[in-house]
Amino acid sequence: xxxxxxxxxxxxxxxxxxxxxxxxxxxxxxxxxxxxxxxxxxxxxxxxxxxxxxxxxxxxxxxxxxxxxxxxxxxxxxxxxxxxxxxxxxxxxxxxxxxxxxxxxxxxxxxxxxxxxxxxxxxxxxxxxxxxxxxxxxxxxxxxxxxxxxxxxxxxxxxxxxxxxxxxxxxxxxxxxxxxxxxxxxxxxxxxxxxxxxxxxxxxxxxxxxxxxxxxxxx
Length: 219
Ligand code: AP5
Ligand code: MG
Known about the structure:
By secondary structure, the chain is α/β, with parallel strands linked by helices. The chain has a domain at 2-27 and 80-118 and 170-214: P-loop containing nucleotide triphosphate hydrolases (Rossmann fold). The protein has helices spanning 14-25, 32-42, 45-54, 62-73, 91-103, 120-128, 168-182, 184-191, 204-215; strands at residues 2-7, 29-31, 81-85, 112-117, 130-133, 139-141, 160-161, 195-199. A five-stranded parallel sheet has the order 2-3-1-4-8, sandwiched between helices. It has a three-stranded antiparallel sheet with strand order 6-5-7. Strand 5 (130-133) and strand 6 (139-141) form a beta hairpin. Helix 2 crosses helix 3 and helix 6 packs across helix 7. The longest helix has 15 residues, at 168-182. It is globular. The chain binds BIS(adenosine)-5'-pentaphosphate and magnesium ion. Magnesium ion binds at residues 14-15, 31, 33.
């Protein structure tokens, strides 16, 4: 049973690794950022609220985010494990997650937190070079994972776009929010013996290799 949290700054490669981990270990990839963006695309009340924060590079309020995650964790496919990408992101969210897991009969100590880190310049380069398919959401990078035809998704032929919060100024805000509000989680999980450090400076396959060595071969 794998219950994993991916922790790390914007652009470090959480989503990229999450897809691979999810495929290899057969657990659902739960990205709070992706859920917010899907709601923004559909124009739901949650999407309208989230947009106000996301486009400024700020965090969506804790209670809104936690409620959304508890609903997702209650779904059938999470019974055999799950991978949280981008949640928790504040100490309050982490404390609430521990309390929630206890309340539903799961041991919070069973969580493995993968802390992926890379220098600021690398994060900026990765985030500003990212391109997303407007139709299927697949993610590319202009230099590291380019599509076969520039501007076109390999999978569905959709147009590739820049994520609105990947403008340089917004990325810089997100990095500051990460430093102030999310980086204290490293200590929170290290002192409770749940943290594993992953070197995010390596190429995508190298990072994945380090994660698999840590998690073991078996699902
Ligand atoms: P979210 O969508 O979670 O964004 P983020 O954490 O800022 O992280 P990113 O998705 O930008 O980066 P990533 O680490 O996934 O990197 P990726 O794999 O794409 O959140 C967005 C917003 O939603 C937040 O700002 C906030 O407003 C809100 N939100 C979300 N969760 C919340 C919460 N819990 N509470 C409150 N608000 C919340 O990689 C980036 C690029 O680099 C890609 O192009 C990729 O191809 C490339 N790349 C990846 N790895 C490598 C590598 N090893 N080498 C070379 N290139 C690489
Ligand atoms: Mg992501």
